[in-house]
Amino acid sequence: MYVTAASDLATYEYTSSSEEHAGGMSAMYVTAASDLATYEYTSSLSSAVEEPLHFYERPTGTALPGAASAYVSLFLRLIERFRQVIRESRDELFFDGMNSQMREKLHYIVGKDGIVAVEALRQVLNIPHYMEIEVVEEILRQLGLIRDSKTHEARLNLLTDTLKSERERIRDAASLGLSFLEDSSALTHLLDARRNETVPWLMKNLDLVIEELEQAECRSI
Predict the structure, then answer these.
(1) pTM
(2) Which of 80, 86, 151, 178 has the fewest CB atoms within 10 Å distance of its CB?
């Protein structure tokens, strides 16, 4: 487990036996309230928490420093918060240029909790068949429309990674999110996606996004 630093507030424990699966993702549990909590989580989800906490390593079963404890606690709460938002959004209709409750909640949470919110959302989006595809598409489009410099790179990375989705509509929504993000550094990923794409209508959409970003890059020179 890789953690940051600060005083010891919690203990943690890896487990491979007490797994629950939600569409293929192992669950993480908070077993006590307050800052002094014990976290028990499985290997398939632990990497999502470990990755941002890569400053130094502590042996399994030792105390988890406070900064990392706070991060894990927030990460867990945000996963549940996003799942709640998604559940509440299943009956919403999404139209270009129109506001929605999900849009407002997503923009607020990412603006408030920053990169950890984006990483929690990434974890939720990785659950296979967990959400209605229309909700996933709207989330990806909105990730490109959020105007927040602190989370720009994290959102860029999530969207470029999602270009590799097995679902063509998800790949398309990710490319639209990147077009809204207006970051020419996404061009390399989009060009790779275009070379690998086999769906004719999505190939055309990728061409449009690539052309738009290339033009924006030229204007900025």
Answers:
(1) 0.70
(2) 80
